[in-house]
Design a protein that fits this description.
alpha+beta, 15 helices, five-stranded mixed beta sheet, transmembrane, nucleotide-binding, phosphoprotein, five-stranded antiparallel beta sheet, Sensor-like histidine kinase SenX3, 16 strands, Sensor-like_sf, about 50% helix
Length: about 550
């Protein structure tokens, strides 16, 4: 006899054990069940904490109420002229009935009237009359009413001690003291009377928690479907890993142009809220991003390797219609956009261009100064001192103002140094460079390396154009303030931009040879992106070729 194929009856126990283990695994709690248990546990915990807090609050309020009652009764008795006269006479026989009547009509536990030296004239237990009072009396003897918690003959109590003055007069002498108290046991009994209300409220909260847990379980089962917790966990982990590990920004929009999904990189690049809430529904026009980019996202316009400036970021953007599992376009599913940050590459290119510009400037200065020093040495050796003096004046006159700004720590020292070097480079290339720099040098809203890149590239391109053109070869560079803007204007006598170039400021757009020093189509593209990132504008006009840059004026230069 066998239980199953290949299983003898002797293995029945093992077979049953395996089946029991399988059933236990299959009967494990679903995601909805676990959520329901957690929800119920939280509700029970909250109900317990709330009950404890209510109990503490009731106890505290009961004690405060006892303090108010005892103070009120004590002050009332202390101001009674009859009580003052009887207490002064030490008449316990007449005071005790009055105290017993007060005890019957109020919620206090005891009223003790005593002499100033603490001998009881009244007490709830007549046997205690004539014995010393147990408790503090110093503040009352000093004329102040005070409240304390003290353990006396009736147990721990909240008591108020007030001075009784002659004839109840505020200015009279203290003839006795009165102590009115409520035992803590009485306070606890009052709290216990309210306990059913706390229990009922806690039970109601737990009942609502049970209903909520059932609703959570049902809702979770509708969402998770037939996935087991392990399968659902692996699915979510894979989804999160792919979404948040991408080094490119990813934005998914629906048919109406609203953003429904994006990853961490997209949130950083576009200034969106942190991508931690899964799917959302966000109108891109409401986000703090470039208006043109927001409009492109909302309209679903196809974008292929487009460069977009968003704040201080330069982005390379692609946007296509969503596709289904077969790879076919699925417009009903919306659009998918990818974004790549080119800002770091842009910054590196800018720094490289700045270093190249400064190195060329230093090379030109070295060469030009070498020539002039040789000429000066020859003139001095020939004894032609006047000619040597005129050469020095002619060499330094045109750049003396810029040199003075370097020495005087002018805010525009970096730009001044750059232009000073460009004078030598222009002279070396046979180009006349005229400089018109306002004094003091206008403060550019650019980091130092950005200022070098913008000014250096504009002047370099003008020198290249002028050097390749016919006589007279000239370049004019102007830096001034114009209202709320700082204007950088560079003109040259060259042939102008190549009309075959669609955009001379685009990356790769150049008329230089393929192996030209310093690369091709980089300089002006860097200028355009830096100016756009800083909120500036570019203007180009011909006859003569002029590039004009407008940057918003600032009080202080931007630091790197």
């Amino acid at each position: 006899m066998t239980v199953g194929e290949g299983e003898p009856i002797g293995d029945l126990w093992s077979y049953c054990s395996r089946q029991a283990r399988r059933r236990a695994v299959d009967m494990r709690l679903s995601v909805g069940g676990r959520l329901a248990l957690v929800s119920l546990g939280v509700v029970v915990l909250v109900a317990g904490v709330l009950a404890a807090l209510l109990s503490v609050q009731l106890s505290d309020s009961g004690q405060r109420e006892a303090e108010k009652v005892t103070r009120s009764v004590a002050e009332t008795i202390a101001h009674e002229p009859d009580v003052a006269s009887l207490a002064a006479a030490g008449d316990s026989e007449r005071l005790q009935p009055m105290v017993e009547q007060i005890l019957a009509e109020t919620d206090v536990s005891f009223v003790t009237i005593m002499t100033p030296d603490g001998i009881r004239l009244t007490h709830r237990n007549r046997a205690e009359i004539g014995l010393p009072y147990i408790g503090s009396r110093d503040e009352a003897l000093a004329g102040r009413t005070f409240t304390e918690v003290y353990e006396g003959t009736l147990g721990p109590s909240v008591r108020t001690i007030a001075p009784i003055r002659d004839n109840g007069d505020e200015e009279g002498a203290i003839v006795a003291l009165v102590s009115v108290g409520v035992t803590l046991g009485a306070v606890q009994q009052d709290i216990a009377a309210r306990a059913p209300l706390i229990v009922l409220a806690s039970a109601a909260i737990v009942g609502l928690g049970v209903l909520g847990a059932l609703y959570v379980r049902r809702s979770a089962r509708r969402v998770t479907g037939s996935y087991t917790p392990g399968e659902l966990s692996r699915l979510v982990e894979s989804y999160e890993t792919v979404l948040h590990s991408l080094r490119e920004g990813l934005v998914v929009t629906d048919r109406s142009g609203r953003i429904v999904l994006y990853n961490d990189e997209a949130a950083d690049l576009l200034g969106l809220p942190p991508a931690t809430a899964g799917q959302v529904s966000l109108d891109p026009r409401d986000a703090e991003m470039d208006a043109a980019l927001a409009e492109a996202i909302a309209t679903g316009r196809r974008m292929v390797e487009e460069t977009v400036v968003n704040g201080d970021r330069v982005l390379l953007v692609n946007q296509e219609e969503a596709r289904d599992l077969t790879g076919r376009r699925a417009p009903a599913r919306g659009q998918v956009m990818t974004l790549r940050d080119r800002s770091e590459l842009q910054a590196l290119l800018g720094e490289l261009e700045g270093v190249r510009t400064l190195s060329d400037t230093l090379r030109s200065q070295t060469h030009e100064h070498g020539n002039r020093l040789h000429a000066l040495l020859a003139l001095l050796e020939l004894g032609r001192v006047d000619d040597a003096r005129r050469l020095i004046v002619a060499s330094t006159g045109e750049r003396q103002e810029l040199a003075d700004r370097l020495v005087s720590h002018d805010e525009g020292a970096i730009v001044a140094a750059l232009l000073l070097g460009k004078l030598d480079e222009a002279a070396e290339r046979g180009v006349r460079l005229d400089l018109d720099v306002a004094e003091p040098t206008p403060s550019l809203p650019l980091a130092p390396e950005e200022a070098v890149t913008v000014v250096g590239n504009l002047v370099d391109n003008a020198l290249d154009a002028a050097a390749a053109g016919a006589e007279p070869r000239w370049v004019r560079a102007t830096l001034r303030e114009n209202g709320d803007d700082v204007v950088i204007e560079v003109s040259d006598g060259g042939a102008g931009f190549d009309p075959t170039l669609e955009d001379p400021f685009a990356f790769g757009s150049s008329t230089k040879t393929a192996h030209a020093p310093g690369g091709r189509g980089v300089g002006l593209a860097l200028v355009r992106d830096i100016v756009a990132a800083r909120g500036g504008t570019l203007q180009v006009r011909a006859d003569p070729t002029t590039v004009r840059v407008f940057l918003p004026a600032v009080a202080e230069a931007v630091t790197a």
